[in-house]
């Protein structure tokens, strides 16, 4: 009976790393506070996740990984618009498998019934799954608050005329040691590091380390790292701030432009690259950031101040720490006597 009344969160992120990673971190935090967690990924990403960030969680009592099909074939995954195809495919097909999975979980011995569904913002089609199961839904919005506001007001911004607000040679010219992550699928043909020119490899020999994957948070916290050239995704931005590392921002999509504006213009912890990337500017920014000049020192001081604020927010008594406790308490309140789901849906 105690197990039946335990909160059980079925978590489904949109299957891109920028959504999977923060959802997995939240899953680990909820599990550490006594919530039973089922983390659902697409079959295509399932094994990759278990080999990397999910490996430390696999097999823990009260934490399990499951998968559902994404409906794509190899041609879809190689297409330039693969993210759009993935979204449309999941919107069409993932509902019934998720409902079936939740019901099968509730029939297993020692597993409490699913009491809520947690999804990332782009996976809004999963709200219907929670409604069919009769359980509440919680939405993780994985971008900044200002990014959220801009998304809500996108139609109005367009109506008012506020519309549409790049490679290895930059690293060659910088003459600085560097770590470069080139994941499979990042370059045409899915060849990863094999696509890099021989001249580039020869010119950077002895001062480069190229990998298909890295534990980004651990790398950023390493004392050898003096700067981070980033696309300005919100995960990378917050991880860099947490580590106290100043940034060189090269945004190209969605909220990345807003994030880089705050990093460079409001918080003073980064330098922005022009829309048309030029190797001369990349080299100049690297030297400005890491060469020991006054502006670089100022950015490092600002980064250290923001790091201290982030640490305070996540420490016991901090705003983020207390907000997580409030979420866990709300999840527990949603578990009615007898373990049967409440007929209510709401989002956070």
Please describe what this structure looks like:
α5 crosses α6 (127-133) and α9 (168-174) crosses α14 (279-290). This protein folds into two domains: 8-142 and 318-339, Glycogen Phosphorylase B (Rossmann fold); 168-312, Glycogen Phosphorylase B (Rossmann fold, 3-Layer(aba) Sandwich). The strands form three sheets. A five-stranded parallel beta sheet has the order 3-2-1-4-5, with helices on both faces. The chain has a three-stranded parallel beta sheet with strand order 8-9-10, with helices on both faces. The chain is globular, with a radius of gyration of 22 Å. The chain has 348 residues and is of the alpha/beta class. 47% of the residues lie in helices and 13% in strands. The chain is built from 16 helices and ten strands. The longest helix is centred in the C-terminal third of the chain and has 21 residues, at 294-314. β2, α2 (43-51) and β3 (63-68) form a beta-alpha-beta unit.
Please provide a brief summary of the model.
By secondary structure, the chain is of the alpha/beta class.
Key descriptive features of the protein:
single chain, globular, Rossmann fold, 348 residues, 10 strands, 13% strand, 47% helix, transferase, Glycosyltransferase, alpha/beta, 16 helices, UDP_glucos_trans, five-stranded parallel sheet
